[in-house]
Write a structure and sequence with these properties.
Layout lengths: L1 H15 L21 E4 L8 E3 L5 E4 L1 E2 L18 E9 L3 E7 L4 E6 L2 E2 L2 E5 L9 E7 L2 E10 L3 E8 L3
Parallel strand pairs: 1-3, 2-5
Antiparallel strand pairs: 3-12, 4-5, 5-11, 6-10, 6-12, 7-8, 7-11, 9-10
Length: 164
Amino acid sequence: MFNALLAAMLLQAAAAAPDACTAVAPPPAGMSGWASPRPLDAGRTAKRATMLTPGVAVSARLSSTRDVRYAVRPEKPGGSVSYGGVFAFTVATPGRYRVALASGAWIDVLANGKPATSVAHGHGPACTGIRKMVDFDLTAGRYVLQVTGNGTADLPLMVAKLPA
């Protein structure tokens, strides 16, 4: 599913720009798992959040926004025709963690029910399939990742600890 989605994204980019990608580029350092995502259904509530493993990419199947109950109202919740989901992940080693997405969907990382502050935002490297990257300095503990405002039900994403 991810490879088909990535191929479609690359073809769309190629049609839009004459010198666009003709092959998939490797992901950035610390994100090698991006190249081999596993399918996963997103949770619809924080209590039933789907667990992510840092360093493992997923091809997430999101739900209609109207069916998701977020722990904290997202800053940008998306419209009634958008998609979202709720995930959780555990940080064992404190450090800088990156959330990478194949779209421009909105994300919130929650620590103890409060939004964590991002420390960097950016676009993924050309031809990797990563459109958006948001970094957070996180301590050990459990976090909730809320995804909102995605245009489709399918979303490749990954949480990864960045190399020091």
